[in-house]
Amino acid sequence: MFEVQRLGSDIVGGVMGGRSLDSTLQAASLRHPALSVQDRAVLQDISYGTLRFLGQLDAILDQLLQRPLKDDDVRQLLRVALYQLAHTRAAPHAVVDHAVRTCLALRKPAAKGLVNAVLRNFLRQREVLLAAARRTEAGRYSHPQWWIDKLRVQYPERYRDILENANLHPPLTLRVNRRHSTVDDYMKRLATAGMNAQALGGAALMLERPVAVAQIPGFADGDVSVQDAAAQQAASYLDLQRGQRVLDACAAPGGKTAHILECEDVELFAVDQDPKRLERVRSNLNRLRLNANAICGDAADPRAWWDGKPYARILADVPCSASGVVRRHPDIKWLRRPDDVARFVARECDILEALWQLLGSDGKLLYVTCSLFVEENNDQIERFLERHHDARRLPLPGPHTNAQRLAGQILPDETHDGFFYALLQKS
């Protein structure tokens, strides 16, 4: 655990320095190939968990420290160790002992006494400290204060639920490949493998207990994919028809691309400006034995890649703040800054304007974000409709009220992440 704890503190420090959690964790794993499977699982848990509850952990540290801690390495170590003590079943004495030993590995022997005292004081006053941490909003919800304030203004009745849901472990949701099987048949297959699942509608199944991808029956053969239930709405909202020319802009990593092809025989063009992420699209399609025209290009500047022929359907799954998926990516809430939202809004606007020119008459464009912030969502669409009199917003298909179908905002809960959808038709 000693080595894992040290690596976890390095990873958290990397994220607080501006790097993404996934890339930092992957780099650490590559640098330490000798780590066991169990150690890798623990490393992932403490890295994700520390960032998930960072606001709470910092509120506890503020109570335990007599003066501000200037050493970032020691702060990351204390954050990781406090997460282990507060949220895992790791033996407390082992956590404290390994944290003290990590001070030596970090070449900070003078910090041993401080680390030992802070962690042992937490163990002695655990319940009092946890209760006090909840008295501040940042400590209770483990989100930056500006994020909490924004959600409170935009969702005054729901912001508490949204924030608390964001700190839960995300569900593992599957999408059954209907070209290979039915949902009912695949559920029986899961039951035979000793896995219970809940049908969520459409092709979505939520496993009762998450497992490694390699353990999912038929995954390697393309029988099933991992995809959030809210993300799976895109293919059905597009109203696909056989033979249509369809564009999936900003397509990586390819989940929605593949789902479109599983639903209907269309001529699909998958565009993404990142060559490495485009390879993930191709890899997903190969596993599922599906074909699409994968094109490296910027969705906001189609001149370099568009063949001049209009599309009947366009999926505009635009880059966004990702504020609806922070339970899967807890680093996002600490990496984002308040002024980032305006930059995303501007980029989304550029993409939407460019793609609208590629849509044929009577064609439909589905605008998608995994954001909760109204600036990126409903406000963006309202401004677009004011500029484009040839556009009208359609109600989304499904068992919703008319108001819900037009609103298009899916708030996160125990079964799915937060997404926004707006379906536009060109007249």
Count every beta strand, where a strand is a DSSP E run of 2 or more residues: 12
Mean pLDDT: 95
Radius of gyration (CA) equals 23 Å
CATH class of the largest domain: Alpha Beta
CATH topology of the largest domain: Rossmann fold
One letter per element, helices H and strands E, the order comes to: HHHHHHHHHHEHEEEHEHEHEEHHEHEHEE
Structural class by helix and strand composition: alpha/beta
Reported for the largest beta sheet, the result is:
8 strands, mixed
Structure characterization notes:
The chain is α/β, with parallel strands linked by helices and 427 residues long. It folds into three domains: 2-138, NusB-like (N-utilizing Substance Protein B Homolog, Chain A, Orthogonal Bundle); 173-226, Sun protein, domain 3 (Alpha-Beta Plaits, 2-Layer Sandwich), CATH 3.30.70.1170; 233-426, Vaccinia Virus protein VP39 (Rossmann fold, 3-Layer(aba) Sandwich), CATH 3.40.50.150. 47% of the residues lie in helices and 15% in strands. It has helices at 2-16, 21-31, 37-52, 54-64, 72-87, 92-105, 112-133, 137-141, 145-154, 159-165, 183-192, 233-237, 255-263, 275-288, 332-335, 340-356, 378-387, 402-407; strands at residues 173-176, 197-201, 204-207, 224-226, 245-249, 267-272, 293-296, 311-317, 359-369, 391-394, 409-410, 419-426. The strands form two sheets. Strands 5, 6, 7, 8, 9, 10, 11 and 12 form an eight-stranded mixed beta sheet that branches. Strands 2-3-1-4 form a four-stranded antiparallel beta sheet, covered by helices on one side. α14 (275-288) links the parallel β6 (267-272) and β7. α1 (2-16) runs antiparallel to α2 (21-31), α4 packs across α7 and α5 (72-87) packs antiparallel against α6. The longest helix is centred in the first third of the chain and has 22 residues, at 112-133. The chain is globular. The protein starts with a helix and ends with a strand. The model has no long low-confidence stretch (mean pLDDT 95).
